[in-house]
Amino acid sequence: MKLPIYMDYSATTPVDPRVAGKMIPYLTEKFGNPASRSHAFGWEADAAVELAREQVAALLNADPKEIVWTSGATESNNLAIKGIAHFYQGKGKHIVTMRIEHKAVLDTVRELEREGFSATFLNPEPSGLLDLDKFRAALRSDTVLVSVMLVNNEIGVIQDIAAIGEICRDKGILFHVDAAQATGKVAIDLRQLKVDLMSLSAHKTYGPKGIGALYVRRKPRVRLEAQMHGGGHERGMRSGTLPTHQIVGMGEAFSIAQAEMARENERIRMLRDRLLKGLMTMEEVHVNGDMEHRVPHNLNVSFSFVEGESLIMAIKDIAVSSGSACTSASLEPSYVLRALGRSDELAHSSIRFSMGRFTTVEEVDYAVELLKNKIGKLRELSPLWEMYKDGVDLNSVQWAAH
Amino acid sequence: MAYSEKVLDHYEHPRNVGSFAKGEEGLGTGMVGAPACGDVMKLQIKVGKDGVIEDAKFKTYGCGSAIASSSLVTEWVKGKTVDQALQIKNTQIAEELALPPVKIHCSILAEDAIKAAVADYRNKHSAVVETPACGERCKE
User: Fold this and answer.
1) Poorest-pLDDT segment among A68-72, A236-240, A332-336, B124-128
2) B95: Cα within 13 Å, side-chain hemisphere
3) Sign (positive/negative) of CA torsion A383, A386, A392, A393?
4) Does residue A268 sit in helix, strand or coil?
C-alpha cells in the first residue's frame, strides 16, 4: 500500500490509464485541427471528436447534437446560466437555485443579480435535500431559470431532478442541472428527465482536467447566448479550437463509466459501508447529509470536539477534504454544512472522504485505524471533549464574545 | 499549509497536556476562545506560596498552531512569577513558532489564556474567566 492514500475523488480523479492511452496519439501523430475541412489531418481529428460526442451523449441517453464542448463544468455552468438569462430576459428576470450549489453556479447567479436579475437561494432540508413544496412556492411568474445540482460535491446527496424537472416543464421554466459530480455514479436518462441543460466535467469521472461539456436540449429547443465569441464552433454556442486529445479522453472516460458504473458502484458502496462502520465505533461521530439519497462514493462525517485543520494535519497519510477553510485569514466553515443547519463546531470538524475506482479495502482499513488513533489523541487534547465527558452542556457555556 | 518544524514538534509531542485535580491548591484556570471560531484553549497554572508558577497544563481544541502556541506557553510560564508570566507577549510566541500571518491569532489567544489563568488565580478559584476576544478573525 502506498502512502498517502487518495480519498479525495470528489476533488478530482486520476485519469484512467485506458483513457490516457487513447489521448496520447492525438497530441503527437493525430494532431489535426478538427475544424480543418480541407485535409485528412482535420478529418481524422473531427472523426475523433464526433465519436467522443457520441460516447458522452450515450452515457446520458442524449442526442450527440445536444453536446457542446467546454473547458469544464465551471464554464458549462456559466454558459448555461448566463446564456439562458441573457437570451430569455425578455420573458422574465428571476432565477431559482439552492444555497448548497457549487460556487460556479452561486457566483454566476450573483453576477446576474448585479446585472439586474433577481434570484432566490433555497435552503435545503437538514438532510441536504430540496423540499419540493418549498421549491414550488419559490417559483414566480417571472422565473425563467432553475438551477439545481444532481449530486452535491461536499455531501454527495442526490436531488430529485426528475420531480423538479416536471414542475419546471409544467410552468414553462427552463431547468439547468450541474451534474459534474454525478456522471458514472448515478444513471442519467435525458430522454426521460425534463432537464434542459446539464453541465458535465471529465476530470471527476477519470478523464482529463480542462474539458467538459454542456448538454443543451433540442426538443423542445433551448437557445442560449454565447459567452465566448470567435470562429462559431459548436454551432455558435462556444467558439474556440477544440482540444481533440482532451475530448477523446472525456469520450473514453464516459464510455468506460457507462460500461462499468453498475459494478463499480456496488464495490464502492461496500467500501463506504466498511469505512462508515469503522468510524461509527467511535463516540460522537455524525454523518452529514442524507444516507439514502446519496452516491456511495461520498462520506462526509463530523467528529465532535475535534477541530478540522488539526485533524487533517493528524491524518496526512490520507488525502481528504475538510469542511473548514481555516487556511484563509477568515475562518469560514463550509457553507454547505451551514446550510444544512449544522453548527459551526460540527462544520469545522467535518471530513469529506470520497472514494473511487482505485480505492482498496486495505486503504479503507488503514484509514479507519488511523482515524481512531488520531481522534482519540486529539480528544485527549480537547477541553471540549473533557467538558462533554464531565456532562457540561457546551451550548450553555458563555463563550467569549466574538 | 506549511508548518514550521517547531509547530510540528509541539503538535506531535505536546508538552504538559492535561488538567489538574479539581481541589488542588494554588490553581488558576483560563479558558479562552469559542468552539464556533474553531479554537478553545484551556490553560491551568499551579502557583506556589512564593508566587512562582510551579506547574502548568493545557488542553486545546484548535488547529496545529493553536495547539503548539498553548503547548509552548505551558513551558514558558513554568518557573516564572505570575507577574513575569503576564509579560509574555503574543509576538514572542509567534516569533518562536514562526507562525504565518493567518495564524497570528493563535498566539494572541495563547497570550489571552495566560492573562485569563492569572486573573482566575487572583480571583481565587472562580470556575472560568471570560476574555474579551479570541483574535481578529471571528469578529464578522
Assistant:
1) B124-128
2) 5
3) positive
4) helix
pTM: 0.90
- Give catalytic status of residue B106 as yes or no: yes
Query: Would you call A306 and B61 a contact, using CB atoms and an 8 Å cutoff?
Result: yes
CB–CB of B26/B121 below 8 Å? Answer: yes
Cell of B77: 510560564
Cis, bond preceding A4 (omega within 30 deg of 0): yes
Classify burial at B129, counting beta carbons within 10 Å of its beta carbon; exposed 0-12, middle 13-18, buried 19 or more.
Answer: buried
In chain A the first and final C-alpha atoms are separated, in Å, by 45
Q: Does A393 touch chain B (CB under 8 A)?
A: no
A167-224: per-residue pLDDT in tens? 999 999 999 999 999 999 999 999 999 999 999 999 999 999 999 999 999 999 999 9
Question: How far is Cα A2 from Cα A317, in angstroms, rounded to an integer?
Answer: 9
Of B115, A396, B90, B121, the residue nearest B131 (C-alpha): B115
Grid cell locating A29: 501523430
Instruction: Please check whether residue A299 is in contact with residue A278, taking contact to mean a CB–CB distance below 8 angstroms.
Output: no
Q: Which residue, A243, A247, A256, is CA-closest to A206? A: A256
Amino acid A200 reads: L
What does the pLDDT look like over B17-65, one tens digit per residue?
999 998 888 999 999 999 888 889 999 999 998 889 999 999 999 989 9
Q: Which of B42, B133, B137 sits opposite A383 (nearest CB)?
A: B42
**Is B63 a known active-site residue?**
no
CA angle B37, A318, A334 (to 5 degrees): 30
CA distance A125 to A105: 19
Residue from the list B1, B39, B139 with its beta carbon closest to the beta carbon of A307: B39
* One-letter identity of residue A60: L
Closest CA to B69 of B85, B102, B93: B93
CA distance A335 to A321: 14
* Burial letters A148-162, b for 16+ CB under 10 A, else e: bbbbbbbbbbbbebe
Question: Which of A334, A381, A392, A397 should be substituted to probe chain B, the one whose Cβ sees the most B Cβ atoms within 10 Å?
Answer: A381
